[in-house]
Design goal:
The protein is of the alpha/beta class. Helix content is 31%, strand content 20%. The chain contains 3 helices and 8 strands, in the order βαβββαββββα. The strands form 2 sheets. A 5-stranded mixed sheet has the order 2-8-7-4-5. A 3-stranded mixed sheet has the order 1-3-6, with no helix packed on it. The longest helix has 42 residues. The radius of gyration is 34 Å and the shape is rod-shaped.
């Protein structure tokens, strides 16, 4: 990887329902929405809402639905929030009791999007002999396996040689005893 990244993604929070107080039987809708996505640094969230707001808050404020000390507050009806660092982000509604009824969002942001490497072009063929080596721990397994096979082979050869010598010495004494 040469440090470049895949294009950022733009997520509409809540998909088709947007950012609104969930119905009574769907209070986990935003947590379900978040767990179905993978967020990376550089992505953005779009909150679309009416008569509401979006508050970026600390962990404690998220779990207690505390709207008193937000990190950031938005109330323009269409908020785009850029995910500029890896880690956890906590969002709640600023409307009274909406957070307590499930209008809150917790997301985990991962590092930058990895870029899929494209195959080399014909004009730029791969260099011979510079393939990456195996993982260091795999070398230990290969060495141990080859050593075990080598020891087993030595033991087998020595056993066969000793049996053959035993037969040869047994035949010699039989030949010398004669009638």
């Amino acid at each position: 990887m040469n440090g470049s990244v895949e294009a950022s993604k733009h997520f509409r929070v809540g998909d088709h329902i947007g950012w609104q107080q969930p119905s009574t039987n769907k209070t986990a809708i935003y947590s379900q929405w978040a767990t179905s996505k993978r967020f990376h640094v550089g992505d953005s969230l779009s909150f679309e809402y009416q008569n509401d707001s979006v508050l970026v808050v600390e962990k404690w404020d998220y779990y207690h639905c505390n709207t008193n000390k937000p990190i950031s507050s938005f109330n323009n009806g269409k908020t785009v929030f850029n995910l500029d660092r890896p880690g956890l982000f906590y969002f709640i509604s600023g409307a009274p009791d909406h957070c307590k009824r499930g209008q809150k969002l917790l997301i985990q942001v991962m590092s930058l999007h990895p870029r899929a490497e494209s195959p080399p072009s014909i004009a730029n063929p791969p260099e011979v002999g510079l393939a990456p080596g195996p993982h260091p721990s795999s070398g230990l397994v290969v060495t141990m396996t080859l050593s075990s096979v080598f020891v087993a082979l030595i033991v087998t050869v020595v056993t066969l040689v000793l049996k053959e010598q035993g037969r040869d010495s047994g035949q010699s004494s039989d030949e010398n005893e004669g009638p």
